[in-house]
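Weekly sync, protein design subgroup
Attendees: M.S., D.O., the rotation student, P.L. (late)

Item 1: inverse folding check
M.S. brought a backbone from last month's batch and wanted to see whether the design step gives back something sensible before we order anything. D.O. pointed out we never logged the input encoding, so this time it goes straight into the notes. Structure tokens as presented (77 positions):
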């Protein structure tokens, strides 16, 4: 299982801040597509991804047991 942490509007879209994805190994981009297909989470291309608390590129591999966080841009004032 891959643990996925969601923040801000992503959390609001599905009503959870954490989901588990049954997968052994895929890229961050493949995980984004899977979440888009299965949960209707569109717009993940514009958010930062972190794997095990380190920022990750779309081609970073994610394995069983990893934690992936999708972090939308933050604005303040």
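Designed sequence read out in the meeting:
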């Amino acid at each position: 299982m891959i643990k996925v942490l969601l923040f801000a509007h992503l959390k609001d879209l599905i009503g959870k801040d954490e989901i588990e994805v049954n997968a052994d190994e895929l890229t961050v981009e493949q995980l984004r597509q899977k979440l888009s297909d299965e949960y209707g989470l569109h717009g993940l291309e514009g958010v930062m991804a972190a794997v095990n608390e380190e920022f990750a590129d779309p081609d970073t591999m994610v394995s069983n047991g990893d934690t992936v966080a999708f972090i939308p841009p933050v604005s303040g004032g």
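Discussion: The helical segments are 8-14, 28-39. The chain has one domain: 2-71.
Action: P.L. to compare against the previous round before Friday.
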